[in-house]
Amino acid sequence: MQSDISLHHVTSMAAISIGLSVAVAFLLHWLVYWLATRIVRRMRIEPVILPALYHPSRWLIVLMTLAAGIQPLTFSPNVEAIWSIGSKMLFILLMGWLIFSLMRAGRIILERRSDISVEDNLKARRQHTRIRILYRVTQFIVGFLIVSLMLIAIPGVRSVGVTLMASAGLAGLAVGAAAQPALKNLIAGIQMAFSEPIRLDDVVIVEGEWGRIEDIKLTYVVIRIWDDRRMIVPVSYFLEKPFQNWTTKTSDLLGTVFLYVDPAADIEAIRARFIEAVKANSRWDGRVAILQVTDQRADALELRGLLSARNAGIAFDLRCEVREAMMNFLRTQMPQALVRSRQRLEAGDDLGKAFTRPSAVAE
Fold first, then answer.
1. For the chain, where are the E strands, in sequence order?
2. Whole-number Å distance between alpha carbons of 163 and 148
3. Which phi and psi (to 5°) does residue 307 adopt?
4. φ and ψ at 352, to 5 degrees?
């Protein structure tokens, strides 16, 4: 009977201590968060960090106050062992959550400082790409460390790990061989963050497809094709295989319009009309507008018109509109310049009589 009363007393004391610890933790967290919010508003700091820290910091404070609250209590050896291991693993997990939240907030702040929606966004795209790749790599490293520390906190797993140290060389070779593609893309991602063969929103030609770099993950790149399809390409592809990048330095681009006209056509009149059509189009950026004869065949001349625009999308629309305007001009104003087929007939004795004038035959 006495033991039942003492056990009930210990259980009641533990419940009261745990309840008070949790209540104090929530109150303390609310007070600290309220003060931090006022300080952030007065100092005009980015309102991203505090919301990111709200949940992980609250449960960290709960864990620490709970540990302090149950410190005077005495438990059985099994309960104390479970609490020791569990609290360590929970602390590591919450710290990892806190680090991930800080990393995410930092990425958002850095990306907001470089606006990628402006017309001349080369510098912003470079910063976004580097931030995105380094963020993915850091996520992987931090996650690996968190899992490792949580396993080390378990005595049984720690002892197994020490036992396996003797075969670490062979195990490392086996894991490295099995994970070669993943490690290859991971290392390629780190290299690409600094060499920058591609950036976010770059216009590229990959495997014959025109598209834009939509996202860069840790091991693969997402390309948005012009018809809204998505092409998934390994990161290592952009370091090992050739591809076209139309926005490496600037987004400015030259477009071409090919026309095929009769060899006897007035090239100067066509050139003047081409330049006029380009300059009259609002999509032209004012840099290049020329027309040249680039090839000659027996039945036609090839004319290549060069025109410039701010980016690839505008250049495509400009080419289509100028091509349409030139075809309308040739059809309505210079129909003699359109390509026509020619055949030469040489009359023989019998055939020549058929083409002889009737009056000549009568004479």
1. 203-206, 209-216, 220-225, 230-234, 244-245, 253-261, 289-296, 301-309
2. 16
3. -145, 160
4. -65, -35
Q: Could you give the CA distance from residue 133 to residue 186 in angstroms, rounded to a whole number?
A: 10
> How do residues 199-240 score in pLDDT, each as one tens digit?
888 889 999 898 999 988 878 899 999 889 999 998 888 888
Distance between CA atoms of 212 and 226, rounded to whole angstroms? 8
Phi (first) and psi of residue 294, to 5 degrees: -105, -10
Which residues lie across from 255 on neighbouring strands? Answer: 307
- CA angle 128-246-214, nearest 5°? 40
Q: What is the pLDDT of residues 84-124, one digit of tens each?
A: 788 888 888 889 999 999 898 888 888 887 766 666 666 77
Tens digit of each residue's pLDDT (9 = 90 or more) over 248-288 = 776 678 889 999 999 989 999 999 999 999 999 999 999 99
Amino acid identity, residue 309? A
d(CA 236, CA 115): 28
Q: Is 168 helix (H, G, I), strand (E, B) or coil?
A: helix
Strand partners of residue 253:
309
Nearest to 340 by CA among 303, 301, 300: 300
Asked if 274 and 255 count as a contact pair (C-beta separation under 8 A), the reply is no
Residue type, 85: I
Distance (Å, whole) CA 92 – CA 271: 72
**Are 52 and 105 in contact, with CB atoms under 8 Å apart?**
yes
Q: Annotate 34-86 with DSSP letters as a single string.
A: HHHHHHHHHHT--TTHHHHHHHHHHHHHHHHHHHHHSTT----HHHHHHHHHH
